[in-house]
Amino acid sequence: MTTRPELTEIEVALKDLVVHDLNARAGSAEAYEADDIPVLAASIATLGLLNPLIVQKTGKHWGVIAGGRRRAALLHLAGDKSAKGWTMRSKVTCRAIADDVAAATAITVAENVTQKAMDPLDEFEAFARMMETGGHSPESIATMFGVERRRVVDRLRFGRIHPEIRAAARAKDITLDAMKAFAEHPDQEVQAALFREMQGQFMAAWAIRDKLRNRGVKIGDALGQLVVEGYRAAGGEIAADLIEEDGILTDEGLVETLLMETLHTRAEEERARLGLKWAAAERSPDYEAMRAYGRVYPQQIGSSDAADIADRMAEIEELRETDESVDPEALDAEWLRLDAEYGELTNRYAPEDLARAGVIATWERGEVTLFPGLVRPEDKPGAAPVTGVAGESGASEGGGTGAGASGGSEAPEEETGPAPLALSESLKTDLKTEQAAVVGSALAADPALAQDLALFKIVADMMGRFSRVSYALGISAAEASRPHAKPEGVDGRAAEALEALHAGLDLSWWDERSPRSLPERFERFRALDTDMKARIVAYAMAGTIQPTGYGWGEELLSHVARQIVPEMRAAWRPTGEAFFGRLKKGELLGLLAHDLKQPEEAARLASGKKSEIVDYLETLFAAPFATLSPAQREAVETWCPPGMEIPAPKSRPGEDAEPDEDADDGFIDEVPFEDGEDDIDLAGNDEADGEEEEIDLSDADATEPA
């Protein structure tokens, strides 16, 4: 039986302290290297060592039986040059135990087993008391515990939630997450009012936050930042928070008044700058009402000079991205100067347009949005009706919008269309990878077809009826290789759909946690019902589709793919990182002006950075704007890069087939193979094509299929 041990208080130099072999954590070195050791060190540096270490003499050193993490924190302080007064010779208060193995073991177990983590509510309220009665600030508490100020502020907020709500959390009447949600608003009375209002219903954290967000405007929000200076000047009431930007502007009527004043001011400033006839402000854009307006646009003056400037600005964009030796500050200064000159040449309205057009300022998506060049219905000429709206471009069926639609000079029509996009071979290869993912996801959603295709492929290959049924339909013991230079930036809908299908599969027959043999797993698989087996086969098939150009020899996969993905854009869209960002600025502007029928937007973005065009296109394709005309919307919703749409099947050489007018898909077609030949390397060595956004080919695994 272990008797109560005798403990003697002593002072031991830090350098003489080691972890005792009997310490319960001696075999878990990670406990002394945890991320919270600096936090413990900060507390010791501020408050001192509150609990002495329990030690026992072990040869020349003192072994720490209880307090190994405190020793690790002290070592951290000794190695921290900013922690003054701590060295390896610093004396540490300890309590020594005699040479009693049983007592030492009991102490180290008790130290680690009997400890109980602090209740979160106790922690929150303790932090709050430190500030309210202990004279501490969030900064001093953060320093004391060695944590970020924001973390301290969060705990202080939770500790200052209305007592009635904290009591409900202690009684388990609401969850801790629900209690925390009430900290969205700093006013305890507002918190309590909502808590009482929601009595009798389940209090979901998201619902609480949503309701509190509608009770005032947070200073740190875009709207709060816009009006806070005027709000304070007008004496508006503010529910203060520990962090200033999280305070709430409670007088929503005053906020709205200041917003409208700001919008009127911005609209008038823009009217004066451009020389327009009128200015107006709206709380938010009413696109339906604005369809009755016409739209005029600035006319280009001195186009040859403007073209030279635009060319130089494009060169600067390329230098920024490709030449590390140039001075970025000098380039930025030159770009800004050229941008101002370009604006002088291109942002001028015709006199007859200035006499009728105006500007509307609105609040949209957290910023002031200006719609210049609008022509009120009563000011439009009596010709065919104009249906232009803010953000629209191109001509309507009954008349015209855009430059010259309401009078003034008309922009000359293009006699010929733009040259097709010049996609690099690496980008073509990546599009094949995205295409294969879409086809695979669609195949997984049609189990009956997938099972038939898999069986047909396997049987036909085994019987040798064809040289190969399909080269890209890579049904084998391995998944298809789908290299991509920008895998994180692609449209993720195909992967999400596949993940959802996976969640519905019964994979208990292949439970890796159970040591089952392959024959046993096979018999369990056979026992599944027909529908589940078909779904599993379909899911497995999804990963076998190889990237391909659907050339000769791929008529089977082309035939199937066109059935399950009749419209590629319904399942896939181009993104900024994976596609648009890898085209030249001129190509992006041509795509926007011609293919997407938005020449005015192209003109507006021409003087900006390439990244702005990429961002615009990504946003446009993610959710086509409500202001688009029917023709523009159709263009955005149907446009695909060359070769992304799945072409009609191509017959093998020598077979009779109708010529396919759309056969040129922009990809390299595969050639027919004989048995035993390897598939063609579609990601081979790219030829230098002059693109400023060429992908990095230094990593062979990222560009070459296995």
Task: Give me the secondary-structure topology.
Elements: E1 7-13, E2 17-19, H1 37-47, E3 53-58, E4 61-66, H2 68-79, E5 91-97, H3 101-113, H4 120-132, H5 138-145, H6 149-159, H7 163-170, H8 176-181, H9 188-197, H10 205-213, E6 217-218, H11 222-233, E7 238-239, E8 248-249, H12 252-274, E9 278-282, H13 287-290, E10 294-295, H14 303-322, H15 328-346, H16 351-354, E11 357-364, E12 367-375, H17 425-444, H18 447-463, H19 493-503, H20 518-526, H21 530-542, H22 555-564, H23 585-595, H24 599-605, H25 610-622, H26 630-638
Please explain how this structure is put together.
It is a single chain. The protein is α/β, with parallel strands linked by helices and 706 residues long. The protein is built from 26 helices and 12 strands. The protein has helices at 37-47, 68-79, 101-113, 120-132, 138-145, 149-159, 163-170, 176-181, 188-197, 205-213, 222-233, 252-274, 287-290, 303-322, 328-346, 351-354, 425-444, 447-463, 493-503, 518-526, 530-542, 555-564, 585-595, 599-605, 610-622, 630-638, and strands at residues 7-13, 17-19, 53-58, 61-66, 91-97, 217-218, 238-239, 248-249, 278-282, 294-295, 357-364, 367-375. Strands 1-5-3-4-2 form a 5-stranded mixed beta sheet. The chain has a 4-stranded mixed beta sheet with strand order 9-11-12-10. A 3-stranded antiparallel beta sheet has the order 6-8-7, covered by helices on one side. Helix 1 crosses helix 2, helix 14 runs antiparallel to helix 15 (328-346) and helix 23 runs antiparallel to helix 24 (599-605). It starts with 6 loop residues before the first strand and ends in a 68-residue tail after the last helix. Mean pLDDT is 74; it is low at 383-419, 461-469 and 655-706.
